[in-house]
Amino acid sequence: MQKAVQTKAVNYRKPSVGRTLKQNRTLILMCVPAILFFLIFAYLPMPGAYIAFTNFQYNMGIFKSPFVGLKNFQFLFTSGQLGLLLKNTVLYNLAFIVLGNMLQLAFAIMLNEVASKGYKKTAQSIMFLPYFISDVLVSLLVYNMINYDFGFISHLVRSLGGDMPKVYQNAGAWPYIIIMVHLWKSTGYGTVVYFAAITGMDSSMMEAAQIDGANAWQRIRYITLPTLKPTVIILFLFAIGGILKGNFGLFYNLVGNNSMLFKTTDIIETYVYRSMMNSFNFSQSSAVGLFQSVVGFFIVLGANAFVKHLDPDYALF
Amino acid sequence: MTVRNESARHVMHTTHIRKDKTQIAINVVTYILVTLFCIMCILPFWMIIASSFSTEDAIRRTGFTLWPSDMSTYSYELLFRSPDQMIGAYIVTICLTLAGTAIGLFLVAMTGYALQRRDFPYRNKIMFYIYFTSLFSAGLVPFYLLMVQYLNLRDSYFAILLPLLMSPWLIVLMKNFVKAIPHEITESGKIDGAGDFMIFVKLILPNLKPALATIGLFLALSYWNEWYYSSLFLTTKVEYRPLQYHLYNVINKVASLKNSVAGSNVVITDLPGETLKMATAVVATGPIILLYPFVQKYFVAGLTVGAVKG
User: Fold this and answer.
1) I want to staple B245 with a disulfide (CB 3.0 to 4.6 A). Which of B112, B230, B250, B286 is the partner?
2) Closest by Cα among A292, A276, A293, A296 to A284
């Protein structure tokens, strides 16, 4: 670092743009694949968002389809469709964030209190396993457990004399199922993150407390939790920033095209996907998508500003 | 530092003897809850395996059980009697995973290295250009139309290979890993007259092994578990689908289930639908579960580096 500064200091005039480009041409070239990648797959589609303001005809393409102004949005607002999607998406995410973080934090703190290193390691590995599998397989695991005719749990309930509802026809049951499956899949991941934060903590305070005779509960209550507070708050804020983004893979694989369940399970992503792939309603689909992107963008900005206010080191930009 | 640690360990050891009650309570609760959760994490996998070895009759009678009540390998025999679909799916997935991981890993590492060079004046601008894409996107429809109408990638395996090569998150994660390599290594390369690219290949890459393992695994996993882009871009015209999309079809579409054992001369009504789904799942997911114990430590390492400050 020192040397770099020195060699640069030799050119005491501010180098011209052309000179800087030439000096850094290799580093620039090394970034070119990434620049092209994001240009093609992320920036090129952006003008296509225009489709949300058209009555899209597939054979005419995006920019020749008739312009209809805000009609697509109007329909989505007045029909109540967008309201339902927003409600479902936000409520599911809130449940995921709040319950998920509580569970992950509790598991991480508890694991930290266990003395056996082998148990800690094994438990982390096993809890992490569900993160590894595709949502396709998750849907089969769930089916295996709760489907009315053959499901393991359904049979268990019946053999105990109870009666299991036909869950695949019962919209009311799905918020619970989806939240549980999500927690099942993501708890290991979050626990590992929090566990890493705990083990990275400065241990001197902990040792001092121990010498002063603080018991385990007091150490958790007065040292571990307060030390973790900034991490928790920041992760929470970023999670709030993504509150309009749904976990498409999970929802779509669990529910699929089962319209009996849409009332409680349809989120923005699943609606966008279905209305494009199944009903070929490109305009409305992209209107919902654009609404999500724009509103979501401002929510992220807000969350980031909040984080910056708390601790500039953690802000994204 | 070490001295203090030693003494601390000593203190802990002596206080250990008069273990407080809350510690015991917490430990008991931990062992019970964590062990229960661990069982819940494994049980469903076991259920799939047990079900795949049951007879269809037994499942009709008693549902999916913890232990196959009538042991049978019939569904596997059916699968392997006409293995074309499965073998094709395996080849497609393995090729995509190998190619995607190798190319993606190289590009992510190269970009990550360039973007953390403190003497690279454009690094912040380029990083923002990349990062912005995770803040705002045009949405699914324009992306889909670009791929299908303009890039003509319908029914092409490139439609799966390309979009998964990089992500802002992987580049940030790589940047954090590269930061740990002292800048002096780059400096020493410069003094020896090496260009930036040679420094990256000869001096940086060999020091990046843990990072490459971690990010390579994230990439490999996203290719292995791929079904989303397949469902968007691969239509019925494609003969062989990636594994997870094949599994998706077997689970969700009766026609695909029949096709998966076409040529095995089984009357359709006799088809053991439930056990066949389970057996397909076992065959499609088996390798990743078997590899899991060996690779999971790299994931834990990756999360530790990149998760909190992403």
Assistant:
1) B230
2) A276
Domain A74-314 falls in which CATH fold? MetI-like fold (1.10.3720)
The complex's ipTM works out to 0.87
In the prediction, which pLDDT does A229 show? 85
Of the candidates A33, A193, A207, which has its C-beta nearest B308's C-beta?
A193
Provide the whole-model pTM: 0.88
Count of other CB atoms within 10 angstroms of residue A75: 15
Rounded mean pLDDT, A65-69 = 91
The beta-carbon neighbor of A34 closest among B41, B107, B118 is B107
Which residues of chain B does A256 touch, with a Cβ-Cβ cutoff of 8 Å? 252
Same domain, B89 and B237: yes
Residue B243 counted as domain residue: yes
- What confidence score (pLDDT) does residue B18 get? 55
User: Residue A248: its chain B contacts at CB < 8 A?
Assistant: 228
pLDDT-wise least confident of A138-142, A167-171, A294-298? A167-171
Tell me the nearest-neighbour CA distance from A29 into chain B, angstroms.
Answer: 9
CB contacts of B116 in chain A (<8 Å) are none
Q: Which residues of chain B have pLDDT under 50?
A: 1-11, 13-15, 17, 307-310
Inter-chain touch B221–A132, beta carbons under 8 Å: yes
- The pLDDT value recorded for residue A24 is 87
User: pLDDT value at position A3?
Assistant: 47
Contact B33 A46 (CB under 8 A): no
Domain of residue B36 covers 2-77
Average pLDDT over residues A64-85: 90
What residues of A are in contact with residue B307 (Cβ under 8 Å)?
192-193, 196
* Cβ within 8 Å, pair A30-B144: no
Q: For residues B102 and B239, state if they share a domain.
A: yes
Q: Which candidate from A114, A124, A134 shows the least CB-CB separation from B27?
A: A114
Chain B: residue nearest A115 by CA? B27
**Residues in chain B within 8 Å Cβ distance of A191:** none
- Which of these three, B201, B232, B252, is where a domain ends? B252
Q: Are residues B69 and B95 in the same domain?
A: no
- Mean pLDDT across A160-187: 90
* Residues B158, B208 within the same domain: yes
At B10 the pLDDT is 47
Comparing CB atoms, the residue among A48, A139, A248 nearest residue B138 is: A48
**A241 → chain B, closest CA residue:** B135
- Cβ contacts below 8 Å, chain A against chain B, sum to 300
pLDDT digit string (tens) for B161-218? 999 999 998 998 899 889 888 889 999 999 998 899 999 999 999 988 888 988 999 9
